[in-house]
Design goal:
The protein has one helix and eight strands; from the N terminus they run ββαββββββ. The structure holds FE2/S2 (inorganic) cluster.
């Protein structure tokens, strides 16, 4: 990590992103195009990018239903995708 970057973990995959990057940007960097799993079992991903659609909900440091598009990465953050939501 540098002042201009931070390291986070996406489903156990460590990635480094620019400081201030959104969680959804880190998810893309990890090569994952999934945020949550719908109640019918479909993989979902960020759609609106502005906090409206709720499709980008992930679990961050154990807290469920965090909007990945509206949350900036912090160093050491652990992000889980694919949660049933
Ligand atoms: S992408 Fe729509 S709320 Fe996050």
């Amino acid at each position: 990590m540098t002042e201009r970057s931070c390291s986070v973990t996406i489903d156990g995959i460590a990635v480094t992103v620019p400081a201030g990057a959104s969680v959804v940007a880190a998810i893309v960097t990890a090569g994952t195009l999934r945020t949550r799993t719908s109640m019918t079992g479909q993989c979902r991903f960020a759609l609106c990018g502005m906090g409206r659609c709720q499709e980008c909900r992930v679990t961050v440091d154990g807290q469920p239903h965090v909007l990945a598009c509206r949350t900036a990465c912090r160093d050491g953050m652990q992000i889980q995708t694919g949660t049933l939501a």
